[in-house]
Amino acid sequence: MNQPAALIFCGLFGIPSLTTAKELTYERTDPPLEVTFKIAGGHYSGVVTGGDLFLQSDISTPPIVRWKDAAKGKFYTLMMLDFDGNANGSWPDPVPSGENSPVRHWIVGNIPGDLLSGAGYVESTSDPLIKNPTVLQPYSAPHIPMVSDRYGLYLFEQPRKIEFAAVTGPITNYDFAKFLKTYQLGDPAASNFFVAIYTSESPFSGKAFQGNDVSKSWHKDYGEGHLTK
What we know:
The protein has one domain: PEBP-like (Phosphatidylethanolamine-binding Protein). Helices cover 10% and strands 23% of the residues. The protein has three helices and nine strands. It has helices at 3-12, 113-117, 176-182, and strands spanning 34-36, 47-48, 52-55, 64-66, 75-82, 103-112, 134-137, 148-157, 190-197.
């Protein structure tokens, strides 16, 4: 069925029309999705303001997420994705996304709007499978094999409270577009992003540290593609 026919069909039978989401990008919206990590050791701010750099070892626990424009009585879905996915380069280098892209790091549905606009949502580490909100993918902290990856956090307004099916399968090569279409989530209401970097030891530990040896693979695809914007 083509799109115009599908819209007519939905209208005749009172079925909400399917929404087609635009391509997700790394973006800090205005107003932004407010994301705050508790940084291990408290050596620097955990507030995400758009493209902030964090050591991956410092953000092992879920952040607090708020959005001041979330509406009371509405429900929202939160998603965290990595579109770099083991790329042989790092933004803004012109290399294609890695073989693991996109990587699913966090999905939570049915988050009440008044919670988001108030104290904010934070995943319970003691009970990650609580029913309301619905944790479909517990927070999975960045695990970078080399150098750095970017991570986007996206908030979608739901048409209603949803009975979600379980999210299964590997977190790599995740078909987020199918998920958005299935639940009619459309475009993000708010988003933000950050960069996580790999080091062998925390620079604050006093120990010598280094990144991974990427001399054999780094930039091997340079100029042959474009990382997600």
